[in-house]
Amino acid sequence: MSGDRMKKTPGSKEKAAVFVARKRNFTIAFLGVFAVFIISSLATGYDVAGGFAAVPKAVHWMASNFVPDEKAWSRLPNILAKLIETAFLSVAVTVCAAVCAFFFGLPGTRTLKLNPWVGRAVRIIAAFFRNVPDVVWAMLLLFSFGQNILTGFFALFFYTFGILTRTFIETVDEVSADCIEALHAAGAGDLQTVFQGILPSSMPEILSWILYMIETNIRNSTLIGILTATGIGYLFDLYYKRMDYASAGLVVLSVVLLVIAIELLSNQIRKVIL
Amino acid sequence: MSVLEFQKVSKLYNNVTQALTEVSFRVDEGEIVSVIGPSGSGKSTVLRCINRLVDVTQGSILFDGRDITRVGKKEIRQLRKKIGMIFQHYNLVNRLSVIENVLHGRLGHKSALSGAAGYFTEQEKENAFCLLERLGLTEQAYKRCDELSGGQKQRVGIARSLMQEPRLILCDEPIASLDPSSSKVIMDYLSDINKTMKITCIFNLHQVDVAMKYSGRIIGLTSGRIVFDGPPDRLSKAKIHEIYQSNEGELITDVG
Q1: Inside any domain, residue B245
Q2: Domain membership flag for residue B87
Q3: What's the pLDDT tens digit per position in A181-239?
Q4: CB distance A185–B51 less than 8 Å?
Q5: Cβ separation B85–A185 shorter than 8 A
Q6: Closest chain B residue to A200 measured between Cα atoms?
Q7: Domain boundary among B108, B143, B165
Q8: What percent of chain B has pLDDT over 70?
Q9: Alpha-carbon span A4 to B76, nearest angstrom
């Protein structure tokens, strides 16, 4: 009986149609993803079954080779020294890039209403820096700086700068729009608005992004260190090429522990500032 | 003497949306004027044209006898110094203390550097505390703004605008987010400020009954045109329905 009434209600047909359409869209999306997977597997000659079958073997090999042994532990002080160097580099890079990105990004915000053409240029430049991967930056800069810690510094700097400029623009537009309007209405100038309104109101989000980029940069600097022959990445490369897998394993382990430690620490800091 | 005069002001957003069409009215010194009208009728645009948060497309706005629609950036700052503004969402810097937010009202009077560094004179600080006392916020002076209730936040907003020593205060939906008792407190403060300090007030309001009770004059806007301009006692029920383009029994004011 209730079913009868349902049928009679105007619009119940449309309602049913909405759900049918949703089901159909999900099915199409699923089949689409599956098709893309099949096509790309065929194109690259990737053997799914073989790939998964190789996992246990790989794990076994890593477990028997990468476990740090006596000799590896004796290298710990050396590894820790390089690890600290890498960590400090990441912090320095991120802080420098953050300060530059904040001020560079200000004309890019919509709420501060500086010159719209400059704003567009800022967003394009930031997109460029962001979309060139840090490893590519490192390879390009190797030509001008050589295998030097500066190369790693600038590679990470450019990439971080690109990402933070964009996120800071979005943060300011989102968090500070109201107080920017109020300060402008009170006759405050742009410099005053930045220091009295934008910075205090968006500081927690900005710090949170900086912490996140420090974590990311420690991870990335390991990879870049392999290219630029500096920091912990160099050490890993060195041990790995000498087939001293136990020491290389210890390097990886120390990096993982450091990243986890930094993450825990920054979570604590976030709790305090937010 | 008129403080403010709109002369055939029109505003087009993005060359398509007609927000205001030939709006003309005058506001005299010491008046309380309320602008009412449905959402999207251009109330906020009217207020924001006055302090140039929005630029008009056509017509002119005289403030103190000077056309302010074409003035440059420097003069806009001079203009905004004399015009306070209060917002529906208070628009405070929530992570700063009450007293810091009140002092923000002085930024327009300071040099760029001393304002940016947050350097304020003893006199300014004393004035800020006086205003807080007047608005009953002495105990909240050092609290962070996000610890305050809505009514308290709006009072901070009022104190901030008073710090400017303004001639005119623009109130954009000042009580739209407040409960009835805080609304009354806020409206009473504003009407008291109007009487004792002789500051002209222009309100945007959704509450017709509040507008009729507190203001000396009401302007009714419907899709960017003025359809009513006169004292509250001349605002008939039929006129209210014309402003809101509604039929008898469709408005909340028709209930009870």
Answers
A1: yes
A2: no
A3: 999 999 999 999 999 999 999 999 999 999 999 989 988 888 888 888 888 888 889 98
A4: yes
A5: yes
A6: B95
A7: B165
A8: 100
A9: 67
